[in-house]
Amino acid sequence: MRRLHTLFYVSFIAGAATLHSCSKDSGGLNIFSIEDDKQLGLQTKAQIEADPAQFPILDPSTHAAAYSYINALRDDILAGGKVNHRNDFAWEVKIIKNDDIQNAFCTPGGYIYVYTGLIKYLDNKSSLAGVMGHEMAHADRRHSTTQMTKTYGVQTLLDVLVGKNQNLLTQIGSELVALKFSRSDESEADEYSVKYLCPTKYEASGAADFFQKIINMGSSNPPEFLSTHPNPDNRVQNIHKHADDGGCTTTISSEENDAGYAAFKATL
Fold it and tell me: How many domains does the chain have?
């Protein structure tokens, strides 16, 4: 915690003269630095992994095949070259064993958590790539810390720098797991998911498959994902439009996209 306070102080001193300017990442005022995002991510990761009852994370050593699959998918997204902070953040993936929750989230600093319920809810590899790209975009575009700046206000966060309200950072870390993003952040994450996937072999509009499935199934039992994400609305059409406008194509084979994904699900 002392290290994070120091990082806040350094980032404030460095940016005090231009504190009124907008973040380069998501277009909103963000008092947090890139190093702060990384430290907040580590803090949130520690809180999650200290609570196995709520977050039963699969052991990578005993589920090597599943982690090899999902890590290779993440690597494909990063290799596309469109993730701005691909070399800054950890981009560590963990699988949470809970088949009843169709959700995923990514903390600041790039710690990605995917529930088995989401993996089993989806039908192909491009769909998972699309949802992962969407979650990675929230971290890459720094939506969480931009929103925290807006929620708590600059003055409250500056008070932390001078030793006041020192429990605030722990509270922020707890809130990051269930953070509800704004509609504009969700739209941007959808757009950037397409941008990330466009240079890859995956279907760039893969995230649309998830929302289309929700629409097809009706709203009587919406996935857990929508507890932290606004309703689909016209997101399917917008995602497909981004892919069309970007001239995106796919080269993934049906065997890898469908049969290979079914085999991956079977390991869970």
Answer: 1
